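Handout, section B. The chain below has 90 residues.
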Amino acid sequence: EFFSLISPKTIYSLFDYICVTLVYFRTIEASEHYLEHHLQDMPWEDVVEKVLKTKHPRKKGKNYEIEEDGTYILFEIRGETLIIINAKRR
């Protein structure tokens, strides 16, 4: 599978930019918090797939959240990078 060949730290988009509710990013990275506490609960390829498929994440302060199909993902945008903070199955 494609995502198993990619480092769990950074993934570059196949497109120049990807838009998520008027938020543009070029790369997706995993935060240290996600890698230490949430990687076991929700694998990296599942997180990336959910982020790329979601059209309407909810804004929560300076962060965004996706809550659907029994999953919860919290991320922020820093410059051109989407950073996964938290991801878990409920």
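Note. Helices lie at 32-37, 44-53. Compare this with the example in section A.
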